[in-house]
Amino acid sequence: MLDPWGASSPLDEDDYERIIKEFGIEEVNEVLRQKLRENRFFRRKIIFGHRDLGTIFKAIEENKPWAVMSGIKPSGPYHLGTSTTALEIVEFQKMGGTVYYGIADIESWEDNGIPYEKAESHAIDNVADILAFGLDPSPDKAYIWRQSKEPLVQEVCFKVSRLVTQNMLNAIYGEKTFGLYIASLIQVGDILLPQIMESPQPTVVPVGIDQDPHIRLTRDLTRRYYKTFFLPGATYHYLLAGIDGSDKMAKRNPNSSFTFNESLDSIEKKVKGALTGGRKNKKEQQKLGGEPGKCMIYKMLMYHFEEDDDVLADEFERCVKGELLCGEHKSQCIEKVLKFIESHQKKKEKLIDKARELLKIE
Ligand code: SF4
Fold first, then answer.
1. Residue to substitute in 295, 321, 323 for testing ligand 1 pocket (most ligand atoms within 8 angstroms of CB)
2. Are residues 74 and 181 in the same domain?
3. Cα of 244 to ligand 1 centre, how many Å?
4. In this structure, are residues 127 and 185 in contact, taking their beta carbons and an 8 Å threshold?
5. N or C: which end of the chain has fewer CB within 10 A?
6. Cα-to-centroid distance, 81 and ligand 1 (Å)
7. Distance CA 69, CA 211 (A)
8. Of the residues 209, 239, 269, which one is the last residue of a structural domain?
9. Confidence (pTM)
10. pLDDT per position as a tens digit, 285-312
11. 148-184 pLDDT tens trace
12. Rg of the chain over CA atoms, in angstroms?
C-alpha cells in the first residue's frame, strides 16, 4: 500500500509497473513527452506517469486558464527529495499554468506534532526556496496559503466529510490516526482551491508516486460532490533513493540527503560519500563500463544540478563505455552542487521578506 506519510516500502521497477496498472495511471508515452519537451522533468523521463494531462494540453491549445497545484508540509528545510516537486511547479508555471502552492501546516501538526507557530518559520524558509528556484509570485501568476489560515480549504473538508466513511479511508490509507484522515480531507480542499477561487479549470498536481492516495481520494470526491469541476489531474515522478545507497531519503538518516540550507562542507562530505554505479576498480570500470542507472551522482545531476541535456547524455555514454571514472565524475559533481547551492543560498537570503509577505506573517 502506498503511504503518503512515509512508511511505504522502497519501490523497484516492478513496483512502479504494478502501481501503474493497479491504480490506472497513464504512462507518459513518446508523443506526450515530445509535446512537453520544454519541461525538463518530462524530457529526462523523471516524470513517468500522469492522470488527465490531456485537459492541460487542451487548455494550452485553446488559450484557456489552467492551474498547477502542489504544496509542502512545513516540517523542515527543503532537501533533495522535497525540492523535486517545487522545481516541477516552476517548470509548469513557465508553460503558462497559474501556481497554487499550499503550506500544509495542519498536516505537519497531525503528522509530526509541529505547532502552527513553529511551522511558520519552516514555511517562510520553504517559500523563500521556491522563490529562489524561480517561481514568479505575481498575484496573477501564483497564490500561496497556509491551511490553518485558509477557510476555503477547511470548508471543503467539512463539506465532503459527509460522503466519507472510515472504511473508505482505511481502504485508501490503511489504519491511521483521525488527524491524518482530517489532513487528507483538508488536502482535497487544497487541490480544488484553484477551481473554488476561480472557475472550473484543469489542474495538474505534480507529485511523487507515494502521494497518489490523495489524488485518488480527491478525484473520487470531486466526482461525487463538485460535479461541475474538472477532475484534478496529476503527474508522477520517480522517488529518489538515499544518496548514500539507503532505500529512501529520510530525515532520520542525515546521510541519505542534504538540505538547501546546509553548510557547503557538510554537503561536500555527503556527495563524496554518495553511492555510485561504478565497478570494483578502475580496470573493471574501463572493461565493463559503469551503471549510471544505479548511480546517485548521475541522478543528482539529472534531477537538479546539470542544466545541459547534452552534457548529461555525454556523461551517460562515457560512463557506460568505461571512459568516465567515478573519482573524476564525483569531483565534477561536487563542484556543480556546491556552486548551485552557494548561489541558491545567496538568492534565498534576499527573498525571506518576500516569503513573509506572501505568507502574511509579520
Ligand atoms: S562514472 Fe559517474 S555516472 Fe558512471 S557510475 Fe561513476 S559516478 Fe556514476
1. 295
2. yes
3. 14
4. no
5. C
6. 20
7. 13
8. 239
9. 0.92
10. 999 999 999 999 999 999 999 999 999 9
11. 999 999 999 999 999 999 999 999 999 999 999 999 9
12. 20
